[in-house]
Amino acid sequence: MFAYLEGNLTYKSPSVLNMDVHGVGYELQITLQTYAVIQPMIKCRLYTHLQVREDAWVLYGFADEEERATFRQLLNISGVGAATARIILSSLNTGELERAVSGEDNKTLERVKGIGGKTAQRIILELKGKLQKPKNTSGSAPVVHNTMQEDALIALVNLGINRGVAESAIKKIDNASSLTVEELIKQALRAL
Questions:
Q1: I need a surface site. Which of 26, 36, 151, 155 has the fewest CB within 10 A?
Q2: What pTM did the predictor assign?
């Protein structure tokens, strides 16, 4: 229905943002990879995927078409819903996921919250040869504010993780104050 949206970012967090497109405000669910790209921006274009459910219409936004295509490939796998696909793409960028799938690395996938051995094998089996190699991936920009751990906690809770579990995962991370929000969330997801 929507190929992409382009507009001003009125609110952004590591898991959700609001975009003003000619006076209409859209709420988009995003991954950490997308947040890393758009974090310093005021205006941007996001490629979208609309999920229509019985109780809600949920709009997902991605910084590039490759990440959106990977998200859609993940949705085609039995046992992987939109929330799980978003957690996978928040824990692993498309290049890391492609390497895990091509190398049949179950352990990398099993470190993602909510992915067990059978689901990891199913992901590898169904995505083998279907993912593109990443083109010129850029590094993530560091976050420049005082509440990185709080932002990471909010993002983890928005991803569906219990607040107490998320807090204890963040506390387990060494050098948490020197990490970006994205790195903090990734390590917390791996610590779960």
A1: 26
A2: 0.70
